Amino acid sequence: MNEQNQISEWYQSTFADFERSLNGEAEAEFHHHRRRALQRFGEIGFPTTRHEEWRFTNISPIAEARFKPVTGEARPPDRSEVGRFFFNTRHRLVFVDGRFAAELSSMEKLPKGVRAGSLAAAVKSRDPETHRFLAQYATDEENAFIALNTAFARDGAFIFVPDGVVMEDSIHVVYIATGMDQSLLTPRNLVIAGTRSQLSFVESYVSLKDGRYLTNAVTELIAGEGAIVEHDKLQNESVQAYHISVIQTHQGRQSSVTSNAITLGGAIVRNNVTAVLDGEGAECTLNGLSLGNGSQLIDNHTAIDHAKPHCESHELYKAVLDGKAHGVFNGKIFVRKDAQKTNAKQTNKTLLLSDNAFIDTKPQLEIFADDVKCTHGATVGQLDADQIFYLRTRGIGADAARDILTFAFATDVVEKIHVEPLKELLGSLVQAKLEKGRKRS
Description:
By secondary structure, the chain is an alpha/beta fold.
């Protein structure tokens, strides 16, 4: 029996145990998606470095492990244990090892018509929006991790903002891993912003302790005509853990979606962000910051699909790599034949703080329209010796000068976040991560 068959058999047997734990949920309509996705996972298997989209990212440690979903009911941690993961907001959805924790959550005074809570509860209650949108955009035909997520999806965040409603406060979705070794966590998020609505939501992935587990998350975001959405994601899990995520956005006419992704933790991290601009005049902004040290591998794959004319996209991804960290950036801008008057700009910048850190970067343009303005570029470098010298002539020590310049480079992305409490939290987290990297190097 070859390795792929062994992996497939493991997850088949694991699925049988998972299915029994569902009780009545196994009879729900969504369970047909689970079974089909499991079959598809068995057919395509985990990607290897022989696959073009994964040639710089070796996930064999994930494929060779034997992860299992958390099926038992565990006691949620006390608020005193998890308070450091929260920032000040009236709206918070908390999940512990992938299961909704109502006692840690708070959804105060939501505007009329807004629904926010557990996706599992929404599916069970036959919410019409889950039937219409769930698993319709993040498809598993060619992506093994989407298939694995769908097969074992049990809960996640469900957010629905009706037409014309403006959410003044952000919704903070917090995924807390207890750090159990070999656990498989499969958060599934469905976010729908109606016509001319406004929404800001934050995804945080954190862990209580170090552990070797796999977070395999999928977020589907649908922005209706004229909707304005900001989506911020913070990944700060155990440095022994693995994190694979898919963010799939679909935009209507004149909509605006901004996605800011900050990656700090994880042994192997792969962030897949795909935006489809499927309405004339839509605008998309993708920003990302990765901080890696030790032997971390952080891979950011983005794709912006300009499907309709008069759309704009702006992309800035930065990485700071120290120690033996390995970064990957692959950004594709795709302009379809009828997407005339497209305006797209993509920039990737990497700062290497050690001789052993490195990055593989591949910005791409695929243009099938003739009246467009598209640019892309990538830079890789080290700290400017002249700038360090200038700071040192002002009485600043070498380490402090290095930290000032590195922090300024990194926080350029953090400053683009509009959720002030999150921005303050990220500033301290970024500084702590950089200081830790310097001490290890």
